[in-house]
Design brief:
Topoisomerase I, domain 3; 6-stranded mixed sheet; 28 strands; about 25% strand; globular
């Protein structure tokens, strides 16, 4: 008999086993699923893993396309979705291992999702009502040993119940509203899978409301008057104290008065110093916002990278809402470990000179986890983006312990013929925490020359600027996450994926997130016929209800019963207007499809339009005048393709944008024969000789094939003749030229 410890991910099971093993863990394998046997003290332990959710919610009985649906239950994930088929073997292993176990411990992530995963495995797979619970924030050996030695004798039922209720609520809302939308389009004589959900609908409305605000915006003109001059060998730029003139006549009057003046005088100066406090430690949202600001890494990808860093043991648990660090984590120990990394050693020496190490904690807390921090373990980072996120976390951690920065503002009032112009500048007096957070400190330094009252300013230029008010900005992937948090919609772990879903469904588009025609029409239609589906107040109400479940102030059954009644009312109203809703949504889908696929006028027939289309063998571009015009262009299969909304400068063909994961988006021309895709000079000459067989180059990878000239939508390249056995490729001019090792055909 042994104790069975269940973790959330394979890497976590390895970390737990290595931490608890008195010697070396024994790795076993069952049907390709690894698990570990260890001895800890006098106790035999087996550590096995899930792969996230091994159970999901599904209908008890499938009775066709009906709604509303509430008769659901937890089922093995592999039975619900083909995408989860791989999880079946992990569930089988846990079931088999549980038969010989006499004690059970859950070591999944300590949050709602982890608690639901652990409880479901214990109840459904292990056939137990309860188990021990390990609670930890890092996958380091000391933390894991402490978590094991101090494990709770019971599951965290309140957390699991709140997570369970959230899953049920999301399922109720998602399946019923999505089926209702899809069914309405069926009534209009077409078929299109539509989706919305408890948080997705209100999120889309927020974006649509901003889009409407932008479109309805009417610019208001205003005028500003600028004075440029020199004083005490320094330059000065000052603006009229009125700032914005809303009356052009008034602005002209002032301008007429001062425009020919060559001298002005310093009327007043003022200096003020202020402390700029060190930043707070990262919670998940602030990490996502900062990663997007500094590196343009999306919130969703930031979470994925942070999760990888956590499971590899180099940072603490990332799905936290806390901005606080406690002494319990061992500040000096972490700094000592980080100092072994050359790029941080110098900065850490400066920090360790401080008598007291105290972080500048924020107000936000999380009962389960502290703020995000580096563990000190030496990372083995696989790519540049992981390095960027890790560096950001380390430097933020250091900066929170540093002294406040000292900044100084200076204001100079300049009198020009009794009209006052004001120059403002700000400079850093003492860098403080800036030193530790470089290069991520983005602070403008604008130092003014040192002046005294009555100093003469030599006027170089006075000019009036015609300006107008600007519409509100569209949301970015980071700012919409911040907005959802402010409105208490969704959770720290789900907000990024909700926004990503809106992109996938075609409701929103662009780096600056704009609502598509489909997104706008969907919200408008729902607002008219079923407004509760996009009502953020209703969503926020149930978020608060789930917090009360966590605090044992409400029962989940009561909350779910209330939700069912609300959904029944909403669906009842929806069905009364199903046909009208369907017509509106179908029209919006068609308009949006054409809008998002349009590349430009057909360059062959000059009459049709080029649109991206999906075919049996993948995406392609075709003229909408088919069959009269049979113009087509192929598109790559390994990238997300979007219209670039511009034409090639060389051949004037439309351009498209290819987006590959982890790489910069690439613009390319549809024209395979575009001169821009051909290489000139020695590399171009060599390519022609290789194509004709005059020169041969050995494949540097397999050493068996020869490099041959191939072409793609991106241009010409070399590929191995042994493809698909050898998949080596090389850009033209990238490798050595023929004189380095080429052989003339038929000669050695």
């Amino acid at each position: 008999m042994y104790e069975l410890i269940i973790t959330e991910k394979p890497n976590a099971s390895k970390k737990v086993a290595e931490a608890l093993a008195d010697g070396k863990p024994i790795k076993e394998n069952m049907n390709g699923v690894p698990y570990y046997k260890v001895t800890h003290g006098n106790r035999d332990i087996v550590v096995a893993c899930a792969v996230g959710h091994l159970y999901g919610l599904g209908e008890k009985e499938k009775k066709g396309w009906r709604f509303p649906v509430f008769d659901i239950e937890w089922k093995p994930a592999a039975e619900i979705s083909k995408k989860s088929g791989f999880s079946k073997k992990y569930l089988t292993v846990i079931k088999k291992l549980s038969k010989e176990a006499d004690e059970f411990t859950v070591a999944t992530d300590y949050d709602q999702e982890g608690s639901v995963i652990g409880k479901n495995v214990v109840v459904f797979a292990c056939k137990r009502k309860d188990a021990n619970r390990m609670k930890f924030s890092t996958l380091t050996k000391p933390d894991l040993i402490e978590a094991y030695e101090n494990k709770s004798k019971h599951l965290d039922f309140a957390q699991a119940e709140a997570g369970d209720a959230r899953h049920h609520l999301d399922f109720y809302n998602g399946i019923n509203y999505s089926r209702a939308l899809t069914s309405s389009i069926k009534t209009a004589g077409s078929f299109k899978l539509m989706s919305t959900g408890r948080v997705q609908g209100p999120t889309l409305k927020i974006i649509v409301d901003r889009e409407k605000e932008i479109k309805a915006f009417k610019a208001i003109p205003f005028w500003q008057i600028e004075l440029q001059g020199n004083v005490n060998k320094g330059e000065i730029i000052a603006w009229h104290k009125e700032d914005k003139f809303w009356d052009k006549e008034k602005a002209n009057k002032v301008m007429k008065k001062v425009k020919n003046e060559k001298k002005a005088v310093v009327d007043k100066t003022e200096k003020k110093q202020f402390k700029q406090q060190a930043p707070f430690p990262f919670d998940l949202t602030s990490l996502q916002i900062e990663a997007y600001r500094c590196h343009r890494i999306s919130p969703k990808e930031t979470l994925e990278i942070a999760q990888e860093l956590y499971t590899s043991g180099v940072i603490s648990y990332p799905r936290t809402s806390s901005q606080q660090l406690t002494e319990k984590i061992g500040f000096k120990k972490i700094f000592a470990s980080l100092s072994k990394q050359k790029q941080y050693s110098g900065l850490i020496k400066k920090l360790l000179l401080k008598k007291i190490l105290k972080p500048n904690n924020g107000r936000k807390t999380d009962p389960a986890h502290p703020a995000i921090y580096p563990t000190g373990n030496i990372p083995n980072l696989s790519n540049e983006r992981e390095q960027k996120i890790y560096d950001l976390i380390v430097k933020r951690f250091m900066a929170t312990f540093a002294e406040h920065a000292l900044r100084e503002t200076m204001t100079i009032d300049v009198n020009c013929k009794d009209e006052i112009f004001i120059a403002k500048g700000t400079r850093t007096v003492e860098k403080g925490w800036h030193v530790f957070y470089e290069p991520y400190v983005k602070i403008e330094e604008e130092e003014l020359p040192s002046v005294n009252k009555e100093d003469i300013v030599m006027v170089k230029k006075i000019k009036m600027h015609d300006k107008e008010t600007q519409p509100p900005k569209r949301y970015t992937p980071a700012s919409i996450i911040k907005e959802l948090e402010k409105k208490n919609l969704g959770t720290k772990a789900t907000r990024a994926s909700i926004v990503d879903t809106l992109f996938q469904r075609g409701y929103v588009d662009g780096k600056a997130i704009g609502a598509t025609n489909l997104g706008i029409k969907t919200v408008e239609t729902l607002e008219k016929y079923a407004p509760k589906i996009v009502d953020e107040d209703l969503t926020r109400h149930f978020e608060e209800e789930m917090e009360q479940i966590m605090e044992n102030k409400r029962k989940s059954d009561d909350v779910l019963d209330e939700a069912k009644e609300k959904i029944k009312e909403i669906i009842s109203d929806f069905k009364k207007h199903e046909k009208e809703i369907g017509k509106n949504l179908l029209a919006a889908n068609i308009e949006t499809r054409d809008e998002l696929s349009y590349l430009g006028k057909c360059i062959i027939c000059k009459k049709g339009e080029l649109h991206m289309r999906r075919g049996k063998y993948g995406n392609f571009v075709a003229c909408n005048k088919y069959p009269k015009c049979k113009t087509t262009f192929s598109l790559p299969h390994n990238a997300l393709i979007k219209p670039a909304k511009k034409e090639c400068e060389v051949c004037k063909y439309p351009m498209v944008l290819a987006i590959k994961r982890g790489k910069r988006p690439q613009n390319f021309c549809l024209n395979k024969k575009c001169p821009s895709k051909h290489v000139e000079g020695d590399a171009g000459k060599e390519a022609k000789e290789i194509a004709k067989g005059i020169v041969e180059k050995e494949c540097p990878k397999c050493k068996e094939g020869k490099l041959i000239l191939r072409g793609s939508i991106y241009g010409k390249f070399y590929g191995c003749s042994k493809y698909p056995k050898c998949k080596y490729t090389e850009k033209l001019g990238e490798g050595p030229l023929k004189e380095d090792f080429a052989k003339k055909k038929g000669k050695s």
